[in-house]
Write a structure and sequence with these properties.
Layout (H helix, E strand, L loop, with lengths): L23 H6 L1 H13 L2 H10 L3 H27 L8 H13 L2 E5 L8 E5 L7 E6 L19 H19 L4 E6 L10 H7 L8 E5 L5 E5 L1 E3 L4 E10 L14 H15 L8 E8 L10 E10 L2 H22 L2 E10 L2 E3 L1 H14 L4 E8 L14 E4 L11 H7 L2 H23 L1 H25 L15
Amino acid sequence: MRSAPSLPVLVALVATPLAAQETPTERSAAADVVRRMDALERSLALPPLVARLTGARDPRRDAVLARAKELMDQELLAMADDITRHPETGWKEERSVKILTEYLQAHDFDVTTGVAGLKTAFVARYKKGTPGPNLGVIVEYDALRGTTRDFHGDQHSAQGPVGMAAALAVAEFLTSSKTPGTVTVYGTPAEELASPAAKTVMYNAGVFKGADVLVRSHSSTGTQAPGPGFGSCCMNIDVVRYIFSGAPAHQLQAWDGRDALTGVIELFNHIDAIRRTLRPETRIQGIITEGGKAPNVVPDRAVAEFWLRYPDQVYLAQVLERVNDAARAAALATGTKVRIEADSESRDGISVAALNDVAFTYLKKLGASKVEDEPGRPLPYEETGTVATQLPGVGVTAHSSNGGYHTFAMEADALGPVGHHGFVLDAQAMAAVLYHFASDTPYRTTVQREFEGLKALYDEYLMALRSAYPLPTVPEPGGN
């Protein structure tokens, strides 16, 4: 076992950035809201608060961090490697859930599986918890669907072990120090699948009720602190299926049928045609999930699934309507019919600087690599926004891969030194945030004040953006 590094007493002040949204349009249209966000952030006096928490001598904190590291080194890195080598895609993560829940049960957690009607979702509650702050830890464990094989190209395989190391280290501290509070671990499946959005389903079912703060780790190609404000991991997302119906016929007499696959292909063509008149931050990606069964039969059914993305949900609504119109046009052009099914959506969450800055400072002091000191865009802790607009939290992301996201290189790094190093630091930083939230009342009050202040501005922010994207007036065609 390697010893945990001690934290230096002197820590440079963390410079909390002015609240700023992702695009110039957002910052301009919502300038008044952004100014009030800035004023809120300045009023919190975060640099001295972060310096006090992370720089002062604190043997109890150091013991919690050492315990998180010990758990990772002795048991949980091996568990992460095992899950990495046995990838399971969303709603099929039965082996992974068994491993995680059995470990939690062996360490004084009561586990309930199948919560919210989701077979591979679970909640684990610390048996020895007492009334006080409820410290929540979100863990994921699903793999990516690949064309040659399923794989952990986003390192979700480590999120369970990392989260459990932080949860157990803090739970033991609460009991040994008689600090009021408890710990709850939330197993959230199928993050890489859109339907249904597991965290949203769990939130709507009341699974997160009573949680006071939530932490989560994730793979990262760099170590960076998000800025405060409203944002999402991968932009706001609408997932939509386009189901085309045609009429079958022999390919030698194709005129007797109507080709649903041609309808889908025309949809792709129409989307490519409108890209030039969409804002440059727009992302539209799709695949054909059904395209017929035999080349000698005109396909009477074809299906495409598209993920539409934009940094804010207001303009995303325009993107969705234009893509839907493209589908209707494709059906008209090919003599087919189309049914549009909205599958699921992901929306902005709230990014809390009081949590982000503490986690980032610990990552730096503990030896994270590829540190990016310039604050990034607002980034909440989960990717549906539902939970992150209702409960404060932080996503901890130490550098854990030199490969790109959703790649075999990132999976390989999960099994090697770069991944292991990042995972240990994630566990320690998460444990530190939970430790301070439980044991330091002024810090807890600051987190809650910032979150509630940003939450109060959220609707005003969206309202301001509605004036930023006027639709052009297109006249009727004139005569000669």
